[in-house]
Amino acid sequence: MDIVVVGAGIVGLASAWALRRDGHRVTVVDRGEIAGGASHANGGQLSYRYVAPLADPDVLAKIPGWMLARDAPVRFRPRFDPDQWHWIMGFLQACNGREKACTVASLLPLALLSRALVHELVDGHGLAFDYVKSGKLVVHRDQDEYAAARRLLAAHPALAAEQVALDGDACLEVEPALAALRGRIHGAIHTPGEEAGDCRALCLALADLLTTGENPVRFVLGEAVDALETAGGRVAAVRTARGSIAADAFVLANGVDAPALARPLGMALPIYPVKGYSLDLPVRDATAVPRTSVTDFRRKIVYARLGGRLRVAGMADIVGHDARIDPRRVATLLRETREVFGAGVDLATVTPWAGLRPATPGGRPIIDRGALPNLWLNVGHGALGFTLALGSASVLADRLAGREPAVPHAGFTLAAVMPGTAPGGRRSA
Ligand SMILES: Cc1cc2nc3c(=O)[nH]c(=O)nc-3n(C[C@H](O)[C@H](O)[C@H](O)COP(=O)(O)OP(=O)(O)OC[C@H]3O[C@@H](n4cnc5c(N)ncnc54)[C@H](O)[C@@H]3O)c2cc1C
Questions:
Q1: Separation of alpha carbons 371 and 365, rounded Å
Q2: What's the CA gap between 429 and 420, in Å, rounded?
Q3: Does domain 52-96+131-194+272-359 have CATH number 3.40.50.300?
Q4: Count of Cβ atoms closer than 10 Å to residue 22 Cβ
Q5: Which residues contact 102 (CB under 8 A, 6 or more apart)?
């Protein structure tokens, strides 16, 4: 089949990878460059075992504090935007224990499938993307949050098999670079098998692989898809300013902009931008910078060593389609970094970045057929797109081929991801 994939972020490229492997002739169209969107400078975490969504029952109590604090990890700026209000309502509905448990149960197998496929890709092709298997520490400064993390561990035997709860001292033994927080860490969840890497570098390496060998993927970059053209109850082509590109099937993998392309076909995709920030800082003293990826749970900040840089990422700003860098958010990330790892990095040489996570309210991506039989969706990966991309692409390719995917996929249908709907498509009580 000839297939057009819209979007050259990690999800579009992974989709192209899986579809070409099935023998399809693939064209990837992007309005910008490869990895110019959310995949550009994300937190770098391949977080296969840590897939809990932002929508959590505990979040409800934190919202008033977040609304008042200037440097809160989550920021909400109300806009005259019905999409924002729908999304917020869906998010609040998803903040319950049952929905969170369903999401974790759906995402874990998908993440583990991704892990197997990342290993296959790295072992088979030796891709260079500052990839490390350095483990992950989720550090808790708050006793109640640490207790909740341990409860989650106890409730999921699959998690308990690969994660361990550590007290503050044991945490510092695993990661001595956390010394600045001595006495302030209640505990941590350590996942020795977790990995990290540079998402943009992986995108570029994948694009290289896709354009070499037999049946190379065609890239059309710098051309926005303005609309999906339909004929006879199917999508016939994507329309760009330079003309139409026809194909047999089409995949929307265009992140936060997928709803705009889907809307004219009658599909309301529950995806809204959740803006985040990252900083790259050169490492000055390797002993004072973590080898293990670190998540500061309270501050919702992740730290990953990517080659000679420390990548710091965080913030969840629900402020619409606005990817501009707010210097106050950068200052907050910088202040936190100075406090924890300031001795190890060059704080004067900072590369800041902001990106828009394509988030669904409950945190599950949509990997499904769209409103027309030859239209497919691989969107809405929120805070976990780097982690989930290869697994999602495999599910997409299987579904497109009429094969049963390697992991349960009922939780990723559009019906299941719609606010107020549990995996399997049932409306929740
Ligand atoms: C601060 C931050 C930290 C993060 N940290 C992590 C992490 O540690 N681990 C993790 O797993 N995930 C992380 N994420 C999430 C991850 O980055 C995203 O889920 C992932 O990049 C989404 O990939 P995507 O391909 O769906 O979207 P994108 O990378 O945004 O790609 C979409 C592409 O579609 C193109 N496009 C859009 N509309 C059109 C159109 N009409 N025509 C043509 N092209 C179009 C865009 O130009 C873009 O290139 C983080 C995100 C942020 C913002």
A1: 17
A2: 8
A3: no
A4: 14
A5: 411, 422, 423
Choose one of 15, 310, 312, 357 to mutate for the ligand 1 pocket test, by most ligand atoms within 8 angstroms of C-beta.
357
Phi and psi torsions of 172, nearest 5°? -70, -25
- Look up residue 112 and give its two tokens: 């583990």
List where CATH 3.50.50.60 sits in the chain: 2-40+201-269+363-417
The pairing of beta strand 301-306 with beta strand 234-240: unpaired
pLDDT for 428 beyond 70 = no
pTM: 0.96
Q: Which fold has domain 2-40+201-269+363-417?
A: FAD/NAD(P)-binding domain (3.50.50)
- Alpha helices, H only, 5-142: 10-21, 59-68, 82-94, 97-125
Q: Which atom, in ligand 1's list, is nearest to the CA of 277? A: 1
Strands (E), 283-408: 293-296, 301-306, 309-318, 351-359, 366-369, 375-379
pLDDT tens digits, residue range 84-116? 999 999 999 999 999 998 999 999 999 999 999
- Ligand 1 binding site (Cβ under 6 Å of any ligand atom): 6-12, 29-32, 36-39, 42-45, 47, 224-225, 253-255, 257, 261, 276-278, 302, 313, 355, 357-358, 381-387
Among 373, 371, 372, 393, residue whose Cα is nearest residue 381: 393
The string of DSSP codes covering 325-355 is: --HHHHHHHHHHHHHHHGGGB-TTS-EEEEE
